Amino acid sequence: MSLRSRKARRVRVEVGGRQFTKVGVRPRDWRDAYHLVLGLNWPVFFLIVVTLFVLTNLLFAWIYLLQPGAVAHAHGFVDEFFFSIETLSTVGYGEMYPLTLFAQAVASVEIVVGLIGVATMTGLVFVRFSRPRARILFSKFAVIGRFNGVPTLMVRMANERHNMILEADVRLTLIRLETTAEGAAFRRQHDLRLDRHHSAAFALSWTVMHPIDARSPLDGVTAEALARSQAFLTVSVSGLDDILDQTVHARGVYTPDQVLFGKRYVDILVPQEGHTILDLTRFHETEADHDGH
After folding, report:
1. Are 145 and 264 a contacting pair, CB within 8 Å?
2. How many whole angstroms separate alpha carbon 14 and alpha carbon 20?
3. What per-residue confidence (pLDDT) applies to 16?
4. What pLDDT band is residue 7 in, cutting at 50, 70 and 90?
5. CB 107 within 8 A of CB 72
6. Cα-flanking dihedrals φ and ψ of residue 7, to 5°?
7. How does strand 185-191 pair with strand 165-179?
8. CA nearest 132: which of 173, 161, 172?
9. Would you give the end-to-end CA distance of the chain in angstroms?
10. Are 64 and 74 spatial neighbours (Cβ–Cβ below 8 Å)?
11. pTM of the model
């Protein structure tokens, strides 16, 4: 390996439950910051916001201290720090206010920084809250059992919200390592044929089914074969949220150890007098298929 290759930037990512390392990735630039912030979870996002707020005020407090007596009634670093907070948030000075031209100039800069910071944080929080998201529950395991006498790969989904996803479409994809006739290994994607890939209104549960016949890339497959080929399944669903009137989507991933052979899902629709109960407490439960395999 060359020196250049050894020094190439490395980034670790997870795809289909497996760890991959990208080598030679270009360094991030400032335009990636927006994407990175939106991808953070809420605790980390708020931690970063609070950290930036504290560090900014510590910096300005130190700048005010460069000229002793620049801020009226400020006695030491703590007073300068809280004066900086009042200035940054434009809440008013109270007893402390800038006395010198230096302090007034620094306060003016800090007010501009505060206005930009508040506008930026407000925009980021709004975007994070307003992004349309589907609340789709995917079964913990995909199962392969018989349906109408045909071996069938099944994945169960449920809409956890009390609304409908209109014109919902689902795709089931098999991704695995294959070898060409020339002996080259490459990762290939197979879009699996489904009994039904479209639903006019996805409101309760939906079991996605792929019949495993002679045309299926899973014909004759075993659990060991899935593991050897480093295979995984992805299921993605998208549609129009009838309340938000925006497109929402969700995705689930299944590794070979999450594919159960000779199983089927237990029934979660329980008929009652005049209505039907959707029992999500048993959503992930499976049992032996009809043939007991």
Report:
1. yes
2. 6
3. 54
4. low
5. no
6. -90, -5
7. antiparallel
8. 161
9. 50
10. yes
11. 0.73
Type of residue found at 222: T
Which is nearest to 26 in space by CA: 41, 11, 13? 11
Burial of 163 (0-12, 13-18, 19+ CB in 10 A): middle
Helix (H) or strand (E) holding 130: helix 101-130
Instruction: Judge whether 250 and 134 are in contact, CB under 8 Å.
Output: yes
117's enclosing H/E stretch is: helix 101-130
Q: In whole angstroms, what is the distance from residue 47 CA to residue 113 CA?
A: 19
By residue count, the chain amounts to: 293
Is the confidence at residue 2, as pLDDT, over 70?
Answer: no
Average predicted confidence (pLDDT) for the chain: 87
Rounded Cα distance between 157 and 248, Å, is 15
pLDDT tens, residue by residue, 77-111? 999 999 999 888 877 767 888 889 999 999 999 99
Task: Classify residue 24 as exposed, middle or buried by CB count within 10 Å of its CB (0-12, 13-18, 19+).
Answer: exposed
Phi/psi-derived region of residue 220, left when phi > 0, alpha when psi is between -120 and 50, beta in every other case: left
Task: Report CA 163 to chain centroid distance, whole Å.
Answer: 22
Q: Which two tokens stand for residue 264?
A: 């089927």
C-alpha to C-alpha distance for 137 and 205, rounded to whole angstroms: 9
Helices (H) and strands (E) in the chain, counts: 6, 16
Closest by Cα among 6, 10, 14, 12 to 23 = 10
Q: CA–CA separation, 108 vs 273, rounded Å?
A: 70
Residues 61 and 81 sit within 8 Å (Cβ to Cβ): yes
**Closest Cα partner for 121 from 49, 24, 47?**
49
